Amino acid sequence: MRMVDLIAKKRDGETLTKEEINFMVEGYTEGEIPDYQMSAMAMALYFQDMTTEERVNLTMAMVNSGDTIDLSGIDGIKVDKHSTGGVGDTTTLILAPLVASVGVPVAKMSGRGLGHTGGTIDKLESIKGFQVELDGQTFNDLVNKNKVAVVGQSGNLTPADKKLYALRDVTATVNSIPLIASSIMSKKIASGADAIVLDVKTGSGAFMENLEDARALAKAMVGIGNGAGRQTIGVISDMNQPLGFAVGNALEVKEAIDTLNGHGPEDLTELCLTLGSHMVHLAKKADSIDEARAMLIEAIESGRALDTFKIFVEGQDGDSSVIDQPDLLPQAKMTKAIIADTSGYVQEIIADEIGIAAGMLGAGRMTKESEIDLSVGLVLNKKVGDYVEKGDVLVTLHTNTDEISEVEEKVKKAYRLYDEKPEARVLIYDVITK
Ligand code: URA
Ligand code: CA
Predict the structure, then answer these.
(1) Domain 3-48 is classified in which CATH homologous superfamily?
(2) pLDDT grade, residue 205 (50/70/90)?
(3) What are the required cofactors (predicted)?
(4) Does pLDDT of 70 surpass 70?
(5) Is 82 a residue of the active site?
(6) DSSP code string of 190-243
(7) CATH class of 79-325
(8) pLDDT digits (tens, 9 = 90+) for 2-45
(9) Which of 59, 89, 165 most suits a substitution to test ligand 1, by most atoms within 8 Å of the C-beta?
(10) Would you say 305 and 299 are in contact if contact means Cβ atoms under 8 Å apart?
(11) Which CA distances in Å does 18 have to 15, 55, 150, 243?
């Protein structure tokens, strides 16, 4: 087999066989196929697309390019959740203990933040003592005992995807639905999920700015998951503003505690209940989505969800006193208010601008090596639909520096104010099941 023939075949719109896809992915991972040939292939795939079968084969070839996590020692159906990007997305911190509290095993591998999106592992590290590095046996034991553990990415998972993603980044081929879908799904499957709930964001702060593209991405991922024998559903949710009020590591932990307490922001709570009900249903802990939702609401109201968070934190050596005293979380030296200089209704809050503003305060990493400040970030005082009077506080910064003029400029740019009241906002646009 020769790579040049496969490139020509895809260039001409033909379908690649499983053997051909395996040849290409193995050869590329081992360094036998050079970057220039893989670049040409990525561009051909970008224009010619792939059938569902090709997408499944590409995904599985990437899964098989490295280690896979074996969760078979954990009882029950392991359901994973993945959110595509998003800013101030606190859902994993809430969902992990929430669904565990109704008996769904959560064995989650999470990443650190990069650029303007945050990472669950960083957020958890703002709890004193919290260990994110666990060996496989400890991880399995914790999930069997407490129903929940979250571990940092380790091992050599999907090296083919790492290499291909880096190549796509510099060859203008990131934004391709079959390539994004197989990239994300390969990582979920390699980390051992039996079933997968996808949270695909759409809006100005998301990968997929419009609803049609988000739907196509969700369908592509659901097609791959189901084709690979992992029951998968995709929820399409709004990212025309950051989720909840808090953006920043310790600030989001506090917001997660509030939500598990039943006092969280409305949009964040609703999205967690929606994603959580699908997780509980896929794990076969409820006969219907409605029943699952009622179980989750009961877990919040009875305090069981918060108790599970406490057990989860203690299981990983974290200081659980932060749950009753969130002031023990890292705190920035000062807060500064950003004041509106015009009046109007908030139509949109460009989420990635807010993410970048939080990053400028030190909450995000600009490169993989940079240190982050867990205490800083921002809290939105106004959300979409709110009326803002000139002089009102738009956002409260939690900062360790008073040189905030650039951050202030960014935040003001992110808020789009108009005279007319916007139409009621949709949070969940669609649920894709096949
Ligand atoms: N996230 C991924 O992991 N892969 C992509 O291709 C795009 C976003
Ligand atoms: Ca948030």
Answers:
(1) Transferase, Pyrimidine Nucleoside Phosphorylase; Chain C (1.20.970.10)
(2) low
(3) K(+)
(4) yes
(5) yes
(6) HTT-SEEEEEEEESTTSSB-SHHHHHHHHHHHHHHHHHTT-EEEEEEEE-SS-S
(7) alpha beta
(8) 999 999 999 999 999 999 999 999 999 999 999 999 999 999 99
(9) 165
(10) yes
(11) 10, 10, 34, 40
**What atom of ligand 1 comes closest to residue 168's alpha carbon?**
6
Ligand 1 lined by 176 (C-beta under 6 Å): no
Residue ranges, comma separated, of all CATH 3.90.1170.30 domains in the chain are: 331-418
Sheet with 387-388, side-by-side order of all strands: 387-388, 344-349, 415-418
**What residues does CATH 3.40.1030.10 cover in the chain?**
79-325
Mean residue pLDDT across the chain? 94
Q: Is 345 in the pocket of ligand 1 (CB under 6 A)?
A: no
Please determine, for residue 175, whether its predicted confidence score (pLDDT) is greater than 70: yes
- The single residue of 80, 89, 122, 161 carrying the catalytic annotation is 161
pLDDT score recorded for residue 154: 79
Residue % of the chain over a pLDDT of 90 = 89
CA separation for the pair 398, 35 (Å, rounded): 44
Q: Which homologous superfamily is 331-418 in?
A: Pyrimidine nucleoside phosphorylase-like, C-terminal domain (3.90.1170.30)
Is the minimum distance from the CB of 62 to ligand 1 under 6 angstroms? no
Can you give the pTM of this predicted structure? 0.94
Which numbered ligand comes closest to the C-alpha of 173? 1
Q: What is the pLDDT of residue 366?
A: 76
| 183 carries an active-site annotation | yes
Which segment of 35-39, 125-129, 197-201, 362-366 scores lowest on mean pLDDT?
A: 362-366
For residue 188, the ligand closest to its alpha carbon is 1
Q: Which element (helix H / strand E) includes 165?
A: helix 159-169
| CATH 1.20.970.10 domain residues, the chain | 3-48
Work out whether strand 377-380 and strand 393-399 pair parallel, antiparallel, or are unpaired.
Answer: antiparallel
